[in-house]
């Protein structure tokens, strides 16, 4: 059964490119190369820990792009609150937060106080992890990835998070459990089979048909012989799946 979402999201914004770059020059080069093929960028830890983080976010704003600051915030509530306040101030569209209900609730409270467009996405289970990894982390021999993802998502949505970060493999179960009134953003997207560190992967089409709202794609675009063409190919798939959608 197809669970394609009908939220008023411009189709081109459903693709988020993972802007994994060591510095401003490389980030700006990638943004220039991709041009209007990409309108939404994920800024991850590599750039966040560089001296160029705010410059990159400012550049994205100047170019009319959205920024998903994937800081995976996980600290005491007061520290997370301060971080979310800063992210709202610099104009981030999405940010990711780990943790339990009180921590997530603190992030949501600051989001509401700040106003604007920042949305809080709770991390469920990283797409680089499988059941064996969870057992190693101490979840016990009976742990199941899908059940854990659904449970963690439920806690996040209960305290007011706008959505979750989850693999497309669990998207259908999340929709069945909680409906359509929240965002699912899915990393681990692979247009073709690749041998890398992602384990719970799906194709762009499979992710959207399972109920995902946004996909995050990095290396399959960045490492392609023609990155812009690779991004445009995914955008073509998206337009096919969301014909007549709000643009």
Gist?
The protein has about 250 residues and is an alpha/beta fold.
- Gross morphology: globular
N to C succession of SSEs: EHEHHEHEHEHHEHEHEHH
Named at the architecture level, the CATH assignment is Alpha-Beta Barrel
Structurally, how many domains make up the residues? Answer: 1
The percent of residues in helical segments reads 40-55%
* CATH structural fold name: TIM Barrel
CATH superfamily: Aldolase class I
Helix count, per DSSP?
Answer: 11
Ranges where pLDDT stays below 50 over 5 or more residues in a row are: 193-199
What do these coordinates show?
- The longest helix is centred in the C-terminal third of the chain and has 15 residues, at 227-241.
- This protein has an eight-stranded parallel β-barrel with strand order 1-2-3-4-5-6-7-8, surrounded by six helices.
- Helix content is 43%, strand content 15%.
- It starts with 14 loop residues before the first strand and ends in a 6-residue tail after the last helix.
- Mean pLDDT is 90; it is low at 193-199.
- It has one domain: TIM Barrel, CATH 3.20.20.
- The chain is built from eleven helices and eight strands.
- It is of the alpha/beta class.
- The chain has helices at 24-34, 45-48, 53-62, 77-90, 101-114, 131-136, 145-158, 171-178, 204-210, 219-222, 227-241, and strands at residues 15-18, 40-43, 66-73, 94-97, 119-123, 163-165, 183-186, 214-217.
């Amino acid at each position: 059964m197809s669970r394609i979402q009908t939220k008023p999201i411009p189709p081109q914004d459903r693709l988020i490119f993972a802007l994994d770059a060591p510095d401003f020059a490389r980030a700006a080069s990638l943004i220039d190369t991709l041009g209007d093929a990409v309108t939404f960028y994920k800024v991850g830890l590599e750039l966040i820990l560089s001296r160029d983080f705010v410059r990159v976010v400012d550049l994205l704003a100047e170019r009319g792009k959205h920024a998903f600051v994937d800081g995976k915030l996980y600290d005491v509530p007061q520290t997370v609150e301060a971080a979310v306040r800063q992210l709202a101030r610099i104009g981030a569209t999405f940010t990711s937060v780990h943790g339990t209900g009180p921590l997530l609730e603190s992030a949501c409270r600051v989001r509401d106080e700040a106003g604007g467009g920042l949305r809080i996405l709770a991390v469920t289970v990283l797409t680089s992890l499988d059941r064996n990894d969870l057992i190693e982390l101490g979840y016990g021999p009976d742990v199941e990835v899908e059940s854990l993802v659904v449970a963690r998502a439920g806690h996040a949505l209960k305290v007011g998070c706008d959505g979750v970060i989850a693999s497309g493999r669990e998207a259908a179960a999340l929709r069945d459990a909680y409906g359509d009134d929240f965002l699912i953003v899915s990393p681990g997207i692979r247009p073709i089979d690749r041998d890398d560190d992602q384990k719970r992967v799906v194709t762009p089409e499979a992710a959207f048909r399972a109920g995902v709202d946004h996909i995050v794609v990095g290396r399959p675009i960045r490492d392609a012989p023609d990155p812009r063409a690779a991004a445009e190919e995914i955008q073509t798939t998206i337009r096919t799946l969301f014909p007549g959608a709000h643009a």
